[in-house]
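Hi R.,

Here's the chain you asked about this morning:
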Amino acid sequence: MAKKKEYTIIDLFAGAGGLSEGFVQAGFSPVAHIEMDKDACDTLRTRCCYHYLNSHNQLDTYYDYLKGNISRDELYLSVPKEIIDSVINVEISDETIDNTFNQIKGLAGKRKVDMIIGGPPCQAYSLLHRHDKKMEDDPRTLLYLQYGKFLKEFKPKGFVFENVPGLLSAKKGEHFKNLQEYFAELGYKVHYKMLDASDYGVLQTRKRLIIVGWKKKHDYGYPDFETNKSTAVVNDILEDLPILKAGDVKPIAPYSRPTNSYLKESGIRTEEETFVTQNIARPLNENDAAIYAYALNMWNSKHQRLKYTDLPTALRTQKNEKSFLDRFKVVDGEGKAHTLVAHLAKDGHYYIHPNKKYCRSISVREAARMQSFPDNFYFEGCRSAMFKQIGNAVPVLMANTIAESIRLLLWNH
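And the predicted structure, written out as tokens:
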């Protein structure tokens, strides 16, 4: 049997690395990850250590770090320096781009870059964002131009560009039209579709625009992504996790029960792991706890969503009673979760745990599982930084499906 060819990627606007994790699992080798957020960069470096140590049968060192037996600096010293250096903490801009190119070339050596992946920050294109700020004043709407400069410099065979559905309609479609024309000028044919993560084994409804571009001389079209609609439900990814009440912090804890078929098949929980990390739940004040109980009762008894105006007057502390009336929302334990967003970093009201006994919002690890991150994926930073990274990420199972199809197209051509 022929050895699987190792294709290379550059990961732009990498975040915590959900997209690149899917590509690494499919056999791609990252040359560099570019990310402006320091905590996300530390998360990427820690994950790079995991993959290196795993490939060299040295995972004991990684688990020593998770258990707190060694420091992060000691973990980073346990792998070659170029592994750590492959994560470049920089904001992509006209001022930084030339130096970033040089760093990537040093990391690549004689290797050619096969694919560029990544999605610029998408908040500027979200429908919500358009109400509170003029979109044309937001520099993030033009980050696709910086993305294109990497295509021009490294000339990969193709690219994967992920973003929110709002990119298609932003400024009456003008931004997307400009993006297509710009990439065409650079010699790439653009294909795009709206995909839902729940079609690829993720237990979350999450619609995203996935753009795939190929050099015009070998245009492979839009990949045929293999769907995998799981019959599992959110409760299946919650049932074996430690019992947590609001405010509980269990950095490391044994699983509460054996694994199940979904957790095994998805790769979220592996057989050899005996403990799970980052079981961190937000504290809850008395008033919000009463609102959570109200929301949980409505959802679990009547399958009805709470509107803020449904609450007794005594519980209402928000002045705005005209919009965002669904600001308190229970995750559907018997179905798929609703879309996780970075607002998780600010409060958890939109993601209330379905078990009324807990009366809290979802924990860091629960959120990570809803994004299909493996349990051995460790997020760096404070609690809010972890939630932000998770909310912004591409679900790993979806990313892996994309990567496997891309690899097949490259292999067959």
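The first strand starts at residue 8 and ends at 12.

Let me know if you need anything else.
M.
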